[in-house]
Amino acid sequence: MKSPATLKTAAQWALPYWTRGPAGRATPPDLLRVLYVGWLVAFSLKVLGSAWDVSWHFMWLRDDLAPPHLLNSAGTAIVLALTIIHGYTGYGVDRAALRLIQWGTGVFLVAVPLDLINHRVNGLDITSWSPSHLALYIGTFFMIAGVVRGWFVSASPGRTRTVMLGAFLAFFLENVHFPEQHQEYGILSLGAWNNGVVYAEKILLDFAADQMGRPVDHIMVTNFTLPVPDLLYPVYAVVVGVGVLVAARMMIGGFGAATLVAAAYVGVRVLFWPMLTFTGFPPSALPLFLVAAGLCVDLAFLLRHPLVRAVLGSVVATAAVYGGLVAQSTLMGPVYDLLMGQEDLLGAPPLATASAVWAGPGLLVVWLACEWYATRRQPTAARVIATATP
Known about the structure:
- Helix content is 74%, strand content 0%.
- The protein has helices at 4-14, 29-57, 67-89, 95-122, 131-154, 159-177, 181-194, 202-212, 218-225, 232-252, 257-277, 289-300, 306-340, 356-377, 379-388.
- The chain is globular and about 65 Å long.
């Protein structure tokens, strides 16, 4: 706990900066660091809460004041404070970044009570892909996009700028991939059910079965754990997940950027895995394939021509995701068997292979859009790419 003297010193330091000004005003370097370290803390709390949240909801009946929700709320409180600071002072953001942060925070804050109402009306709302949940992700999407842009245009070139930009982009990847965790937790929970191991408490299963109008049986558990079509997981991972890695490679510049952003996100998931699994919470499959996809993106940027690298990169990255999912099912399944003392567990959600015909073209559209935006609308980003590409 900070002493009164420390708090007084901090207030004395901050007070001169509390002046109204337009977005884009020159920001002192020390203030810029404090603001964006604040964003790192806020997003870290939200990630801690969200990582715990999915596992929690595969185990217990929903509770508005559950510990994961409180962690997320602490992060949201810091987000709101930072949004007000940026909006009032104009420090650390340009107009576009400020608008993204404000709209994202606004959408998120509106989505929270809508989600609570949805739960009151519809009960469990047992999928991460529900409209009220998607509104939360969309709000966070714009919020982090604004922070990424704000840091990108405000920070001076150097190692600190690059590392923090990579961290913010890893948070961005975590947010867009978050709904996919329903299938990642669901596939191992379904496998455990088939082995006679039940992670969910009886009250949760009974509540879900009552909502579906059927007994607690294999069909009910399947609908609870894997409530969306199998094609959604790989198509979304390719189009949205790899799309973020393409944008990360363009913004950071330099070989390895996409791979490191993917590895940072996957590394956090790997770190959380034993912390949750071996403390009694349901386990999840891990999106290890994202690291391979990131490497494919980095390799594609060794090609000079934007159209060529977009086409070839989309093909190779799509193949990496689908091949990675097959490899995970084959290789990680026995690992999960061993760790959990069960058998015939799958290392990845079910794979609808034919959906690759939609995933590849979808990624190509996103990749081409990124190329166009970087070269036509963002001269600074274009220069980064030009200097970083061999």
